[in-house]
Design goal:
By secondary structure, the chain is mostly helical. It has seven helices and no strands. Helix 2 packs across helix 4 (75-89). The longest helix is centred in the middle third of the chain and has 24 residues, at 48-71. It starts with a helix and ends with a helix.
């Protein structure tokens, strides 16, 4: 059996400490702190699915920060965020390709329409189905744009 994300994270922190890789170590510690904080807040032991959702949230924050820093002309800060983003993405499942994403969206639209969803609720229903199948494997903001495009055409 492959090790859990939590165990892998702990092992990678030790490896980064031994290698004296301070940038990687900082990102991994920040991620571990976010996981522990959620465990303490909710008084539960998190599984891989919950940890993946935390990583997705961190990835989304990094992408938004990179965009903001680049618009402000702060390339050094943007580069730091890009390095953190690269480390975080190592812990996400293999990303889905464009054909798979389009296929999942088409199936979700057909299923939602067969269940009688229409109008604004159709978008929510489709996104719920798509997110269940692509969680951690695709940028959901980009997927949302594709869904809107397909529903409006």
């Amino acid at each position: 059996m492959s090790q859990t994300l939590k165990a892998r994270l702990a092992d990678d922190i030790k490896t980064a400490m031994r290698a004296r890789d301070s940038e990687r170590l900082g990102t991994l510690r920040f991620l571990q702190a976010a996981v522990k904080q959620r465990e303490v807040d909710e008084r539960i032991e998190l599984g891989d699915a919950e940890i993946t959702s935390i990583i997705e949230k961190q990835v989304k924050q990094r992408r938004e920060s990179i965009q903001a820093f680049e618009q402000a002309g702060r390339t050094e800060s943007a580069d730091k965020e890009k390095a953190e983003l690269a480390v975080l993405q190592e812990y996400l499942p293999k990303q889905a390709d464009e054909a798979e994403i389009n296929d999942v969206i088409a199936q979700a639209i057909a299923q939602a329409q067969s269940e009688g969803a229409q109008g604004p609720s159709l978008m929510g229903k489709v996104m719920g189905l798509v997110k269940a199948k692509l969680a951690g494997r695709a940028d959901m903001s980009a997927v949302s744009g594709l869904v809107k495009q397909k529903l409006n055409s």
